[in-house]
Amino acid sequence: MSNILMNRTRSQIIRFLLRNGPASCSEIGSELRISSSAIRRHLALMHRAGLLESSDSLGYSASPQTVRAAAEAFSATLCSGSLPQTPRMPVN
């Protein structure tokens, strides 16, 4: 999760999956009124970050345990100071 910044749309997707169970891109997009392609990008990013599980037949799913574990791992990286340094841009 350290490679992902949570935004409102991703938060809505996770809440939807926790509430409703496994769903496809089109089901999530229809409910949230967001295009399937945008949902697909968010789901892929969250899946790579370990927030979601995927199944060919069921679509994507989230569990409270998985979300909590990913959030705790991200929090630990913040506390340890192990985030990559970003170069500072000069201010003119």
- CATH architecture type: Orthogonal Bundle
Helix content: 55-70%
User: Spans of 5+ residues with little confidence (pLDDT < 50)?
Assistant: none
Which homologous superfamily in CATH is the superfamily?
Answer: Winged helix-like DNA-binding domain superfamily/Winged helix DNA-binding domain
Reading off the top of the CATH hierarchy, the class is best stated as Mainly Alpha
The residue-averaged pLDDT reads 82
Q: Within the largest sheet, what's the order of strands? A: 1-2
Q: Topology as H/E string?
A: HHHEEH
Describe this protein's structure.
- This protein is mainly alpha-helical.
- The chain has a single domain, classed as Winged helix-like DNA-binding domain superfamily/Winged helix DNA-binding domain (Arc Repressor Mutant, subunit A, Orthogonal Bundle), CATH 1.10.10.
- It is 55% helix and 7% strand.
- The chain has four helices and two strands.
- It has a two-stranded antiparallel sheet.
- It starts with 7 loop residues before the first helix and ends in a 12-residue tail after the last helix.
